[in-house]
Write a structure and sequence with these properties.
heterodimer, A: mainly alpha, 5 domains, two-stranded antiparallel ribbon, about 45% helix, about 5% strand, B: alpha/beta, Alkaline Phosphatase, subunit A, 2 domains, 9-stranded mixed sheet, 3-stranded antiparallel sheet, 20 strands, globular
Chain lengths: ~800, ~475
């Protein structure tokens, strides 16, 4: 295979690791199953008899070894009429009624010995009698009763229409509260005969809920107040308080940024900075904080510019910024324009997974192998993206960024520019006149120079999308942009009805948002994410895959109940948090008997609460919070070098780490060179959607706690804080003991036990009470402890 | 935190008194970390959750470990390992080629063959020809299976480098070293299983050694030659102090583990501190060349006290594999000032000099220690360089994905052979072409893996290093 061909196949086919050559799928657009059902069309009985008696056995015996099944040679299957009519890489195999024009006949006759079929290594050439049978068959119209079972992508149509995730929501009665959820969970636990863990105590619960909703530890005062509160509605008030905090937006916004693979660089070969992408990041955080209804949240990300056209500037700006969702797609290669089909794949992959839990992007090269998505579907969506103007981040051969969207109207821009341009023109004219006069020897003119024009007016820009010339695109055969097939109209996935873009004058992004939201699947996918963000595991464990390769829901009835309830609540997340967090299941202790753990190691049934390690962001934010150094304000732009200075090449790509004490969501996250801290602690890879954080335990994490400078700094800051805040033992007693108590209350939000004071007192030593280094040692121990690092 | 009492009946109760006694003695600083935690933990439970535990391959194989030598930027095959007399003969002749690097490129409407810049001569018993750029490696050809028919799928550095490391030419995927670590585990808990030694980041950055969707334990650990080659390994506080802190930490964590016993999340974390503590000593020990004798240093062309250079990388690689590291990759240089000789082929001279003696030294050192019998050495680059340019006298060569040379040596590899060939001008791999996927399949085979069976289920699919491609090059197997 030539380098070029090889490149085409390889680039287009990754992700479909089926042990099969890609070409196999191309012609299986209609059917994967060999069907023998006679066609409904009445057939000439003699033609049918001839086919069954002579032709079918010949095809099976002499051709099927290669031209059937998934590895059909040259992409040609002879299994059904549709398959040979579509043909393989060389085109249709048979022209009914014209044996001379049929490639199949040329091949079996061996007109060109190099193309003779069967090839030498697959058996002897066909006999003259066999060739005669085929000639008669083709010349006589190639009657073929074998039709394909109708299918969409990798599912039969019937299967696809009845796939559980696509079905209408089963829940009819959406009344009730947390007890409804518990009833559904408890029924399954009882069925399995699992022992149930009792409720976690107040302190454990408060810490769990606080980390869950804010990504930060509670303060010791908060613990004390909550534990001491005798009122019956204290949990409800706690949840309300946490949900109202801006930190909720930071925490849940970060969850969303994982899914949409947010990054601050473009990901192409020079990994250019995206200086304006942060507006989308902050918009996500604000949207969670404001509890924006989910339908609006989805619409704005796909088509905010269109949805908000004609609205006041501020609302329109918000809509524009939200389309940063599309703009932040990864860019590929050297010339990103040339590889934009890969960026489209990245977008389609992400929006399929994010909003619908569907893996659509396989269909770039061939129909989906398992799920009901065809290549036509894929390129129908591709047309919507091709009709959209993406902000251009720049790349080595194409220069600096362009097509960013100004967050001001043309009039506003003109109004600000006009006086500046006038000043500039006047100034430049005066300077020129003066130079000319000087050259002419006229001497210094009397009137002074007009004032300098001042800095050019600038306007905030959004890394966002806009409408482009609407157009449909052609299927790229085997995903190769240079091999084009039929043009597919912009439309929705066939399995969901295949509606087409109505208004010829638009990209179809607005329609796309509506199509997505019309599917009950969209509600199932988001409530499942919310569930997973609370419990660590979704009711569907594969949060990005609700297709046939994903896991079936552990509690289908509950999933539908939640989805229906969510829709009834106006698609708002905060009522769902309240509902879920007030269940007994959420309150359960993470301690469990060996029997319970062994019976349900993945905790599918939730008879206990799943202990978890802090995420990378929570760990870093907690270190800063406890050391007293956390800057709680919202981050904005990163200190990237000015665009005018960019000279990034693939030999010298952009590379930076910007230290900050802001919350981790505001740390600059590049694509090509993972931020070292997040790389150590399983941060999200911004190159692909992260539906769920993995938790690894590797020695490099322990080395971090032993020797990392940032960690040591925080421990030293905590030590200074201990010394400053606890200068003397309250009421006499031991200073060391009092200070250890203070350290425990700051870091672990609990009192130290006698044994622990004894243990750590030995480490510090009474004599070292004023010795910051000794207290830093104590701080290191607490900040590296399992208790600090895990949530029960 | 203490457990609610209603669970006490289920929880495994540790012997509290004995534990307290232990805590006292450890806080006193009389105990060092290694081993303590292993004693505390049920050893088997820890092994069951250790992703780096040693695992057998699919079938028995001679090669137990790999040293992967990657030359950044694209080494010219026709100037190093692929002699082309016809290229000298036809120097200046115009040719036509539908080549990705010249397509639509102004000034490249006409291209002309350009002769090799260095002389070739046969070497060793086998007579394999190597150019004067690699005089030391030339002396080792009897150990080498040279593949002259390599080809790849992309002509950009980024994509070709990513492809050579992950089998994917566009998307992030697990690195070959991560696959090996995943497949085989590692022998030395005090060292990472997959180490990358590189003075600078090559193209595609950290993706070159990323574990991607494989468990993070299989991530390559980057070592940058210099005084402190591994991040966070140098203790920031005096050792007795650190021991006391770690003992206190272990004691505190043990208390915490008390009724949470059996949670692999917590148990491996305790274990990881022990490993990290060990790494603080094992890593500097592995990187300390002080005990190597003069003869050994001389083999690699090293001066005593030197802590950088490719010789240092090679000798450290030997020390690492000796200590149980499964996969060591050495990258010779970064994404600039490398083999990417567009401007002048003469830039190959210092780059070859940088690696030639160290590589030969590595092969000889492994051999004399008997380690070449179970160590596989791979030498490669991301693509070759064009045997033509837009003028015959242009001093450089362009990117060439159609043909390049790679070689294998050591465990399971045929000695002193040449596999495959390019056409007379070195333009295309014509005889027995070997794609990057085929090289990967062959390396996995040498390590005891069927490349179609070494898979990982991710996002609903079984992924493998070779995507849907790859054929083992049986002709190079001993």
């Amino acid at each position: 295979m030539s380098g070029r061909r090889r490149a085409a196949t390889l680039l287009r086919c990754w992700g479909c690791v089926l042990g099969l050559p890609c070409v196999a799928f191309v012609m299986l657009a209609v059917a994967s199953l060999l069907a023998s059902t006679p066609s409904a069309v009445a057939a000439d009985p003699s033609a049918e008899a001839f086919f069954e008696k002579e032709v079918r056995p010949l095809l099976v015996n002499r051709c099927f070894e290669c031209h059937a099944g998934e590895k059909a040679g040259g992409g040609l299957s002879l299994e059904t009429r549709d398959a040979w009519a579509a043909g393989g890489e060389s085109g249709p195999a048979i022209v009914p009624g014209d044996a001379e024009a049929s490639l199949l006949m040329a091949a079996v006759r061996g007109d060109d010995p190099a193309w003779r079929m069967p090839p030498d290594d697959a058996g002897p050439p066909l006999s003259a009698a066999e060739v005669a049978v085929l000639t008669r068959w083709v010349a006589g119209g190639a009657f073929d009763p074998r039709v394909a079972t109708a299918s969409i992508g990798g599912m039969s149509e019937a299967e696809a229409r009845s796939w559980w995730a696509f079905a209408p929501l089963a829940a009819t009665d959406i009344s009730g509260g947390p007890e409804r959820i518990d009833a559904l969970l408890d029924a399954r636990i009882a069925e399995a005969g699992l022992p149930v863990s009792g409720p976690a105590d107040d302190r454990v619960f408060l810490r769990r809920a606080t980390y869950d909703l804010t990504g930060l530890p509670p303060t010791a005062d908060e613990v004390e107040a909550y534990v001491a509160d005798p009122s019956s509605d204290k949990t409800q008030r706690l949840i309300d308080r946490l949900l109202a905090s801006p930190d909720y937006g930071v925490r849940y916004g970060r969850h969303w940024l994982d899914v949409v693979r947010y990054a601050d660089t473009a990901g192409e070969n020079t990994d250019r900075p995206l200086p304006h992408a942060w507006r989308y990041r902050n918009w996500v955080i604000d949207a969670f904080h404001a509890d924006m209804p989910y339908d609006e949240f989805v619409r704005l990300q796909l088509a905010g510019d269109l949805m908000r056209t004609g609205e006041p500037r501020e609302r329109l700006n918000e809509g524009i910024v939200a389309t940063g969702y599309l703009a932040i797609a990864r860019r590929f290669g050297h010339d990103i324009q040339k590889d934009r089909h890969l960026t489209y794949e990245d977008v389609i992959d992400n929006l399929g997974k994010t909003f619908l839990g569907l893996t659509i992007s396989c269909a770039r090269c061939h129909d989906h192998k398992y799920d009901p998505v065809s290549s036509e579907d894929y390129y129908a969506l591709c047309g919507i993206l091709e009709s959209t103007r993406f902000a251009f981040p720049g790349c080595e051969p194409q220069g600096q960024p362009r097509d960013l969207v100004p967050l001001a109207s043309a009039e506003e821009i003109a109004a600000a520019r006009e006086p500046w341009e006038r000043r500039r023109a006047a100034y430049e004219a005066a300077v020129a006149a003066r130079a000319a006069a000087a050259e002419a020897g006229a001497g210094e003119p009397a009137e002074p120079l007009p004032p300098e024009p001042g800095p050019e007016p600038t306007f905030p820009l959004a890394y966002a999308v806009a409408e482009a010339e609407p157009m449909d695109v052609a299927i790229q055969l085997r995903g190769d942009p240079e091999q084009l097939g039929e043009v597919v109209p912009r439309r929705w996935l066939d399995v969901f009805g295949g509606d087409t873009v109505a208004a010829e004058a638009s990209s179809g992004r607005a329609e796309l948002a509506e199509w997505i939201l019309a599917e009950p699947l969209a509600a199932r996918v988001i409530v499942n994410r919310v569930w997973q963000w609370h419990f660590g595991r979704g009711l569907v464990a594969t949060a990005n895959d609700f297709g046939s390769r994903g896991e079936a829901p552990s509690h289908p009835e509950l999933l539908d109940w939640l989805a229906a309830r969510f829709l009834a609540e106006g698609g708002r997340l905060k009522p769902m948090h309240r509902l879920i967090m007030q269940t007994q299941a959420y309150r359960r202790s993470s301690l469990a008997s060996t029997v319970a753990v062994e019976a349900d190691p993945d905790n599918r049934l939730l008879a206990r609460f799943a202990r978890r390690r802090l995420s990378a962001e929570e760990l870093r934010d907690s270190l800063l919070a406890v050391s007293g150094r956390l800057d709680p304000s919202a981050g904005e732009a990163h200190p990237f070098p000015a665009e005018s200075t960019w000279t990034f090449t693939q030999h010298g790509p952009f590379e930076a780490v910007y230290p900050t004490t802001l919350r981790s969501v505001y740390v600059m996250r590049p694509r090509q060179r993972q931020h070292p801290f997040f790389a150590i602690f399983d941060g999200a890879d911004p190159n692909a959607s992260t539906p769920r954080r993995e938790t690894t335990t590797v020695p490099t994490q322990a080395l971090y706690f032993l020797n990392d400078p940032f960690f040591h700094e925080q421990a030293e800051a905590l030590a200074s804080r201990l010394i400053a805040e606890c200068p003397a033992p309250p009421g006499g007693g031991s200073l060391a003991a009092a200070r250890i108590q203070h350290a425990f209350s700051l870091a672990l939000q609990r009192a130290a036990a006698e044994e622990e004071i004894e243990l750590l007192g030995g480490l510090v030593g009474e004599a070292a009470a004023e010795d910051a280094a000794a207290w830093a040692g104590l701080a290191r121990v607490l900040l590296a402890s399992s208790e600090f690092l895990h949530v029960d | 935190m203490t457990a609610p009492t209603d669970h006490a009946a289920w929880a495994c109760q540790p012997a509290a008194v004995a534990r307290r006694g232990f805590l006292r003695s450890s806080v006193a600083g009389s105990l060092l970390m290694p081993g303590i935690l292993s004693q505390l933990l049920e050893g088997e439970a820890a092994a069951a959750v250790d992703p780096l535990a040693v695992k057998p391959p699919h079938f028995p194989a001679k090669a137990k470990r790999i040293i992967f030598l990657f030359m950044t930027g694209g080494v010219s095959h026709v100037d190093t390992f692929d002699p082309k007399p016809a290229l000298t003969r036809d120097h200046g002749k115009e040719i036509k080629a539908d080549h990705p690097e010249i397509k639509d490129r102004p000034g490249y409407e006409h291209i002309f063959l350009k002769r090799p810049q260095w002389e070739f001569a046969p070497h060793g018993q086998c007579g394999t020809e190597v150019s004067t750029l690699f005089p030391h490696v030339a002396e080792c050809v009897d150990e080498i299976a040279l593949i002259r028919s390599m080809h790849t799928s992309h002509s950009n550095h980024y994509n070709a480098t990513l492809g050579m490391h992950t089998g994917s030419f566009a998307f992030s995927r697990p690195s070959i070293g991560s696959w090996m670590s995943y497949g085989l585990g590692t022998h030395n808990a005090n060292l990472p299983g997959f180490v990358v030694i590189a003075p600078q980041q090559t193209y595609a950055g950290t993706q070159v050694y990323a574990s991607d969707f494989l468990p993070g334990a299989h991530q390559g650990t980057l070592v940058v030659p210099g005084e402190t080659p591994v991040a966070n390994v140098a203790p920031r506080i005096p050792s007795p102090q650190q021991s006391r802190e770690l003992a206190a930490l272990a004691a505190l964590n043990r208390r915490h583990l008390g009724d949470r016993r059996g949670d692999p999340l917590l148990e491996t974390r305790l274990q990881s501190f022990e490993t990290a503590f060990g790494m603080q000593m094992a890593v500097p020990e592995a990187f300390d060349l002080g005990r190597e004798d003069e003869a050994t240093l001389a083999l690699y062309g090293l001066k005593r006290g030197q802590t950088s250079g490719f010789g240092w990388q090679c000798l450290v690689a030997r020390r690492l594999v000796e200590r149980g590291v499964r996969f060591v990759e050495l990258i010779d240089t970064g994404s600039s000032n490398n083999w990417d000789a567009h401007g002048d082929m003469q830039t190959h001279v210092p780059l070859a000099k940088n690696v030639d003696q160290p590589i030969a030294g590595l092969l000889r050192d492994l051999k004399r220690r008997g380690m070449l019998d179970d160590t596989l050495v791979v030498w490669t680059t991301e693509f070759g360089r064009t045997p033509f340019n837009n003028t015959a006298d242009a001093p450089g060569r362009e990117h060439h994905p159609w043909a390049f040379s790679s070689w294998l040596a050591g465990a399971g590899v045929k000695k002193g052979i040449v596999h495959g060939a390019t056409d007379e001008h070195g333009l295309r791999a014509v005889e027995q072409p070997v794609h990057v996927h085929d090289l990967h399949a062959t390396i996995l085979h040498l390590m005891g893996f069927d490349h179609e069976q070494l898979t990982f289920r991710h996002a609903g699919r079984d992924y493998r290093l070779t995507d849907v491609h790859g054929q083992v090059v049986r002709e190079v197997l001993a």
